[in-house]
C-alpha cells in the first residue's frame, strides 16, 4: 500500500483508469454519437425524401391517418412521428398484437413521403440506434452480461472521477493552467483541463448511467431484502406505467387527427408537436395522446394532451402518476439522454461527450508517457505490458473512430439486397477495429500513430465524396435545398477528417523535431547532458504533480 | 445559448485575471491593485447573472443543466486562447458579450 492518503488515491486512479479506460473510451464515443442517433439514421437511409418546408402538421396528420387506416386497419396501437428538427421525415408506426409466447407484438415503423402520403422503401440498416445501443449493450454479448460489464466500468469511472478530484492538488489555482509543452507536463495538463472544465458533465453522466439499470445492479440487496410483491411495488414506484386502454371491440369512427390538433393549439401556446399515439384505434374506447417536445427535465404533465378519439373530448386527468422517486429517476435519465435539448444544446452534449472521451484518451497516453523514459532504458526493450498498453491506445483512440467510419461506409457500399445487411454493417465496424488493434503490434509505435491518424483523416474526408458517388443527395443538393440535417452529417464528417489531418500533421512535425534534435545532439555531446538534466528536473517536478 | 456561452466566457476570464500568474500572461502592464481586487467579485456576479438568464430562458428545470454546458463550452476556448493567444483574451471577453447582448435585445 502507499503511504499517504493522496498517494494511495493516485495509485488507485492510475490503475482503475488503465484497466477500464478502453471500454470507457468506447462507451463515450458511441454514446456521444448517440446524441445524434436520429440524425444518423436519417443519413443512413438516403432513400428518404429531402426536407419539405411547405406542408403543415394538419395535412401531415391526415395523410398519416389515412395511410394507417388502410395499412394497419387490424392493429390497435398507432403512432405518428411528425417531422422535427432531428428527423425531417413523416413516419408512422404500429404494434401488432403479440403472437403466442411473446410478451409484446412486433413493432413496424415506416417512413412516409410527405407529398404523396405513401411509404418510402429504405435500405436495411442498423442506423444511429445500433450505434448508440452499443454503448451499454456492447452488441455481441448477452444483454444482462453486458449490463454488468458496463455497470462495473461505470462504477470504476465514478471512482476515477472522485479520486481524480482528490489527487488534483491545485484544482482552483491551476484551473486555467495549460502548458503547451511536449511530453509529460503537456499531457498532464491536457488531462487535467479536459477533466476539470467538464467535471459537472463527467460526474452527471457517470452517476446517471448507473441509474439506468438499478434493479440489475442492486439485485442482491433488492431480492434479499424484499419479497416479490414488495419488489413489484418498488418497480411501480420508479417506473410509472400509463393507465391501459382496452378496446371494447365495438367499431367506431375516430375524429380526424387534424381537428384534434386544432384543439391542442388552443391549449399549447407554442406549436412543438412531436408525436401522436393512438390506442384502441377505430374503437369506441379510442384514446389519442398528443405529445410535444418536453419542456421539463423531470416530467411535465402538460406536455401531453389526451383526447377521447371518438367524441373528441379532452381527458384531463393525467395518464401517468409520477411519484417523487420516479420524478428524480426520470430527471437523471433525461439529463443523461438530453431528451429536452434543442439543437445547440444537443451539440453541447455531443462536444462534452467528446471532451470526456478525450479526457480518457489523454489519461491513457499519460500512462505510457510517464513510463516511457524508464522503459526505453531496459536492455531487452520495453516490457510486454507497456507495449500492450501502447498498442491498445493506438488501436482504440484512433482505431475506433475509423471503425465507426467503416460502419457508415458499409451502409453505402454493401449490396442493398444483401441478407442480414444491417448485421453486416456492424460486423464491418468490429472487423476494422480488430484489424486496427492488431496493426500497431507489427509497426514501430510512432509510425503506427502517424499512419492511423492519416488513415482516419482520409476516411472521414472521403465520406461526403462517397455519399455523392453512391446516392443522389450530395452536398450541393442538400445545401441548396436547405436540408441541414443531411448536409450537417457530411459537413461533420469533413470536420472530423480535417481534425485528424491536423493531428497527423502536428504529430509528424513533433516527430521530425525529435529526430533532428537527437541528430544535432549527437554532434554536440554536451547538449545531451543538458537535455537529460532538464528532463530530470522536469521529471522531478512532475513526479510530485502526478 | 450563445449569449450564455459568451457571458460565461467573460466571467471565467475575470476569474482568470484575478490570478497574478495569468494576469502576467495577458498583459505586461501592472494593473493597479484596487482594480484587480474587483475582478473576483465581479466574476461571481456575472456568473450569477448568467445562471439567472439561463433559468429565465430555458425554465428552472432545464436552465441549470444548460448553464453548466455553457460554462464548459466557454472554458475550452478560453484556456486555449490563454495558451496560444493570451493577449486577445480581454478584448474577446469584452466584445463577445456586448455583441451577443445587443443581438439578443434587438433580435
Describe this structure in words.
The complex is a heterodimer of chains A (546) and B (107). Chain A is α+β, with helices and mostly antiparallel strands and 546 residues long. Chain A has helices at residues 5-34, 37-44, 57-71, 127-137, 143-167, 184-197, 199-210, 214-217, 219-225, 228-238, 257-267, 324-337, 343-376, 384-413, 421-438, 445-470, 475-481, 484-523, 525-545; strands spanning 77-81, 90-95, 107-112, 119-120, 273-279, 287-292, 304-308, 314-315. Chain A has an eight-stranded antiparallel sheet with strand order 4-3-2-1-5-6-7-8, covered by helices on one side. The radius of gyration of chain A is 27 Å and the shape is globular. Chain B has one domain. Chain B has helices at 2-17, 20-26, 33-36, 39-84, 89-106. The two termini of chain B are 14 Å apart. The interface between A and B is medium-sized, with 26 and 26 residues.
Tags for this model:
heterodimer; A: 546 residues; alpha+beta; eight-stranded antiparallel β-sheet; 19 helices; 8 strands; 62% helix; disordered C terminus; B: 107 residues; mainly alpha; elongated
How many whole angstroms does the radius of gyration of chain B measure? 14 Å
Number of helices of chain B: 5
| Quaternary structure of the protein | heterodimer
Radius of gyration of chain A: 27 Å
Residue share in β-strands of chain A: 5-15%
Mean pLDDT of chain A: 86
Count of discrete alpha- or pi-helical segments spanning 4 or more residues of chain A: 19
Short overview:
The complex is a heterodimer of chains A (546) and B (107). With 546 residues, chain A is an alpha+beta fold.
Compile the SSE list and pairings.
The complex is a heterodimer of chains A (546) and B (107).
Chain A: H1 5-34, H2 37-44, H3 57-71, E1 77-81, E2 90-95, E3 107-112, E4 119-120, H4 127-137, H5 143-167, H6 184-197, H7 199-210, H8 214-217, H9 219-225, H10 228-238, H11 257-267, E5 273-279, E6 287-292, E7 304-308, E8 314-315, H12 324-337, H13 343-376, H14 384-413, H15 421-438, H16 445-470, H17 475-481, H18 484-523, H19 525-545
Chain B: H1 2-17, H2 20-26, H3 33-36, H4 39-84, H5 89-106
Helix pairs in contact in B: 1-4, 1-5
